[in-house]
Specification:
about 725 residues; two-stranded antiparallel sheet; mainly beta
């Protein structure tokens, strides 16, 4: 219907309760009865007005009340009303209606002159969603409110500045043909130039929650944002965007400043109906800010860059930095929940001495209160690499990991974290060696966090002391290369036990290996320790290793190799005799971290009608062949309870006379052989032969001039 102008005391009495909701008692509208113009969704209050023949209304003092959800005159004044008020009055263009020169219809456009204030308490009680805009010379028409003047805007606890403001309304059925804008909801708010914004994030930080003394969450300092423009709030999808040379920073009380540089920055607010990476949200049809109200507490953040100017994040408060064309940060309850880096040829993430390069990288922090120290990580999309200091106490120990397909940190159904690498991964640790395979799985053990601790605040020292490997599985074309152990197998399994170095000595106590603490290694198969006397090569189908981690260095306790086993000891410079070499189908080593390591060697066959095949061991100039053999690595005691053959190099003939040159001596037996130092006992149809003669007997005891040793001495 056409607007009707009321004036005098009747107008004041009619709207007194309504005006008292939005204006203080000293406001000019209460000084003398105002004139009002109302059409159901808008109320214009003025002290007086003049009308021209063209329908233009000049108002010395003016306030415009907009009711986005309409107003029920029998109900309490709505809290989401938007009030526009100017110090210089207003000029309103009225549509002329039928009935003569003094008959006017709808308002077509208008201008608020002088200093202009736009304010609203919105829907939520309290100031968290309040709107306050201060500017000058505001223009209104059916679709928008705009000014090219400087703008001061407050949204809840957030404060911004800029130049050239536009507020567009959302078209609705109720607003069609309704004249001047503000019929229905705001669609968006834009500040086009020289944007400066300060967001007060409550207890959250740009990269997580701050923690004050006593473990309580502390109010975080404001997050400040600048852009060359524009800044846009999309009320329908609950997001705000900054474009062109965007700089975001947060200065902490300790002087550290986190900073984010991007071409475009989007903030998604807490009550969005739909979070999408592309910013698409569900449209709303009611209320000045859509179907719900915004708290202006960021729930997620998206930063976009270009190949020439990628997103750059520097966060010294977390000893972290990141580079990529897209950065996506999600928060839950003010806490950093998940961070994603993607797009472009490569993204880079650095954190507390670790550096990751990949095509796409995502890390989800453990849930607050879960007690977990590690979250879930995914590095996908092709090749990548990681470089990290495993233990801050040993900065020279650098871990390097590379892969061609993906690296993921996942959790099994029982909650155990597992690092999975696919695509010919390669793992190297300075001083310990290199491992590569087609697929690698590292099962980790984490010491639970105290409930008062924050997962996001875990530092490198506490992390390195509380995350330890428990099981390593390498599958297909496995290679091992280190100063002490090299090899090729199809499958590798390493089980790692954690030793407590602080445990008291005594019965049952595990004594630390001196080689793992700094002295020479006493284990012939140890990975850690100082430079070893010898190195070893293993080849087979499967290799299983049991190790113990002492002082963060592994010592091998047991070895199991199956399928086409070759175990070789490297030659020592200056040695006169061939090194240890084992060829068998199965190899078992127990007590490998002790001087008395037990070695069991088994040949193939012997099952399913396949005849037994001999295993072979060569050491100290001796060669032994038998289906199975057991020996003590330290004492060089050996036992064979089956037929076998032994070949020795001797310098005397069978009568005890010296030979001109050492000659081989072959001994074969049918029952058993026992080696004890220099004494060898053979039983069962023993046959001895060399170039000077032969001997056959049921039992033979031989004495060598030197011990036959298998300890590498």
């Amino acid at each position: 219907s056409d607007p009707l102008i009321d004036g005098g005391a009747e107008a004041l009495d009619k709207h007194r309760e309504l005006l008292a909701k939005y204006f203080p008692p000293t406001h000019w509208c209460f000084a003398r009865p105002p004139k009002t113009l109302e059409n159901g969704q808008m109320l214009i209050v003025c002290n007086e007005y003049q009308q021209s023949a063209t329908g233009e209304m000049t108002v010395p003092r003016c306030a415009v009340l907009f009711f986005p959800s309409g107003r029920d005159q029998g109900a309490l004044p709505p809290s989401d009303a938007v009030i526009l008020e100017s110090t210089g009055g207003a000029v309103l263009q009225m549509e002329q209606a039928e009935g003569g020169a003094n008959a006017f219809g709808r308002i077509q456009f208008g201008q608020l002159k002088g200093d202009v204030t736009v304010r609203s308490d919105m829907r939520e009680p309290g100031p968290q969603d309040d709107l306050l805009i201060k500017t000058r010379e505001l223009y209104m028409n059916e679709d928008l409110i705009r000014t090219d003047q400087p703008v001061d805007i407050k949204l809840g606890k957030n404060h911004g500045f800029g130049r050239e403001l536009e507020i567009r309304r959302m078209k609705t059925e109720n607003s069609a043909g309704g004249g001047i804008g503000l019929y229905g909801s705001f669609q968006d708010l834009v500040i086009k130039h020289d944007v400066s914004f300060s967001a007060t994030p409550g207890e959250s930080k740009l990269l997580g929650a701050a923690t004050a003394a006593g473990g309580q969450a502390a109010p975080a300092p404001p997050i400040r944002i600048k852009s060359a423009g524009p800044f846009r709030i999309d009320f329908g999808s609950y997001k705000a965007t900054f474009e062109d040379q965007v700089r975001t920073w947060q200065l902490h009380p300790d002087g550290k400043m986190d900073e984010l540089l991007a071409t475009k920055l989007t903030l998604f607010f807490a009550k969005a109906t739909k979070w999408n990476a592309d910013g698409a949200g569900a449209a709303s049809t009611g209320g000045v800010l859509g179907g719900g109200s915004m708290t202006f507490e960021p729930a997620s953040l998206e930063a976009l860059g270009t190949p020439e100017a990628p997103v750059l994040l520097k966060a010294p408060s977390h000893d972290a930095s990141a580079i990529g064309q897209r950065l996506w940060i999600e928060m839950v309850g003010g806490q950093l929940s998940r961070i994603t880096l993607e797009e472009g040829d490569e993204v880079v993430l650095r954190h507390q001495g670790a550096e990751i390069h990949a095509r796409t990288l995502q890390y989800q922090l453990p849930a607050e209160g879960s007690g977990q120290r590690l979250g879930i990580m995914k590095a996908r999309g092709g090749g990548g690499w990681l470089r990290a200091i495993v233990d801050p106490a040993r900065p020279d120990q650098i871990l390097e990991v590379s892969w061609k397909d993906a690296m993921q940190l996942i959790r099994r159904a029982d909650g155990q974290p597992v690092l999975v690498l696919d695509g010919r991964p390669k793992v190297s640790l300075v001083g310990m060696g290199t491992l590569w395979a087609d697929r690698l799985e590292i099962f980790l053990r984490e010491q639970p966090l105290a409930k008062s601790s924050s997962s996001a605040r875990m530092d490198a020292v506490s992390l390195s002391s509380s995350i330890v490997p428990e099981l390593i599985k390498a599958t297909d074309r496995v290679g091992i290369e280190s100063t002490e152990l090299n090899g090729k197998v199809n499958q590798l399994v390493i089980k790692i036990e954690q030793a407590d170095l602080t445990a008291p000595s005594g019965a049952g106590a595990v004594a630390p290996n001196p080689g793992s603490i700094g002295g020479p290694s006493t284990s012939p198969f140890a990975f850690g320790g100082s430079a070893p006397k010898r190195a070893y090569y293993i080849e087979g189908v499967t290799l299983e290793i049991d190790a113990v981690l002492r002082n963060r260095r592994p010592d091998v306790q047991a070895i199991r190799v199956d399928g086409g086993v070759i175990f070789e000891e490297s030659a020592v410079v200056g040695a006169t005799e061939p090194p240890l070499r084992i060829v068998a189908e199965h190899l078992r080593v127990t007590g490998a971290d002790t001087p008395g390591a037990q070695i069991e060697i088994i040949g193939g066959g012997g099952q399913n009608g396949i005849p037994p095949q001999d295993a072979e061991i060569t050491a100290g100039g001796a060669e032994i062949r038998a289906p199975a053999l057991r020996l003590n690595r330290g004492t060089s005691e050996a036992l064979i309870n089956s037929p076998g053959k032994l070949k020795l190099m001797v310098d005397r003939d069978m009568s005890g006379n010296p030979l001109a040159a050492p000659q081989p001596l072959d001994i074969a037996w049918q029952q058993s052989m026992k080696l004890e130092g220099r004494r060898i006992t053979f039983l069962g149809d023993v046959h001895v032969q060399n170039e000077t003669g032969w001997l056959r007997t049921r039992k033979l005891v031989a004495q060598t001039t030197e011990d036959i040793r298998f300890d590498g001495a």
